[in-house]
């Protein structure tokens, strides 16, 4: 599948701003218009929350577009219709349309801008009834924010991440996230770990006279997932992370807000749909014997939420080998120090990416850590040594998880072929 558009396009280059995406979409005939959008921003939890909302809307019989980032190994997973990734042939077909439209632009769009245009073009092609769009980075200057006032804006927990681009105070970061709020829309605000972030977002909404809703009902997490008695009946969502409580509550509040706008026909269908929900890379069990889990926590707030999950039964009784890899712009030392008290053993590894952090530097912070260069070999070594009541957790970066999932699928296919 097409993963590069213009010859000098740098896949990982980030250049905030709306001018390039605006010009590209104009050349494409503004495919971002003509259908309502739920716009989802935040530091952590926005992917799970967006997918929960998309599933709920799909349960009502709508054609629902969904775009998320990053993917976990297959680029077409970034653009979905009713939670099914775009067909690779259609991806290449629409990719060529984007290539032709942007070839002569004086300022070449970024990789993320090209994929964002791809999503909007696909939604137009599919004639979706509604689309759920996850912000890539920040909000105010993110390519997805080129849209007109959305049907609904959703902001999940805001915490410290990407400070070099969003600011070094929680107020500055929250201000960037709040940039998706537009007059004429409505906002659902998930639980905020920092009161100052909540205050900034609330002030932005008040200034634009945009109504803001916060979750009023919360489920609980147990060994089999998220459970509770919601105002519309019993709910079970088979997500294992403790942090998913907030995501489910936020998605529920979003659906209540959309219900007031006429989007919900039958709540029982939503609860049934969520009872089969899955989302990759979020405390995802890859195998049971021995237990191997992957989790996409990639900043201190995410690691903190992961730690709370590891303290739950039955995980608190296990001896964990943690395979850790992070990108260079992440506070890997702080993240490792948070994980260390729960780790029986730590293996640091190098993500196959030009943005990878140096695991040899992390060993200075955790001298007892073992270094294995390849993440797949690191996981296999950990699993090979696992004894009773021992388990393996790979975490620190979604890029790490993407590599591991791709290798896992390849190895599984090879085994089946034999």
Automatic annotation (TrEMBL):
<dbReference type="Pfam" id="PF02875">
    <property type="entry name" value="Mur_ligase_C"/>
</dbReference>
<keyword id="KW-0067">ATP-binding</keyword>
<dbReference type="InterPro" id="IPR004101">
    <property type="entry name" value="Mur_ligase_C"/>
</dbReference>
<keyword id="KW-0479">Metal-binding</keyword>
<keyword id="KW-0460">Magnesium</keyword>
<feature type="domain" description="Mur ligase C-terminal">
    <location>
        <begin position="281"/>
        <end position="397"/>
    </location>
</feature>
<dbReference type="InterPro" id="IPR036565">
    <property type="entry name" value="Mur-like_cat_sf"/>
</dbReference>
<dbReference type="Pfam" id="PF08245">
    <property type="entry name" value="Mur_ligase_M"/>
</dbReference>
<dbReference type="InterPro" id="IPR013221">
    <property type="entry name" value="Mur_ligase_cen"/>
</dbReference>
<protein>
    <recommendedName>
        <fullName>tetrahydrofolate synthase</fullName>
        <ecNumber>6.3.2.17</ecNumber>
    </recommendedName>
</protein>
<feature type="domain" description="Mur ligase central">
    <location>
        <begin position="40"/>
        <end position="183"/>
    </location>
</feature>
<dbReference type="InterPro" id="IPR001645">
    <property type="entry name" value="Folylpolyglutamate_synth"/>
</dbReference>
<dbReference type="InterPro" id="IPR018109">
    <property type="entry name" value="Folylpolyglutamate_synth_CS"/>
</dbReference>
<dbReference type="InterPro" id="IPR036615">
    <property type="entry name" value="Mur_ligase_C_dom_sf"/>
</dbReference>
<comment type="similarity">
    <text>Belongs to the folylpolyglutamate synthase family.</text>
</comment>
<keyword id="KW-0547">Nucleotide-binding</keyword>
<keyword id="KW-0436">Ligase</keyword>
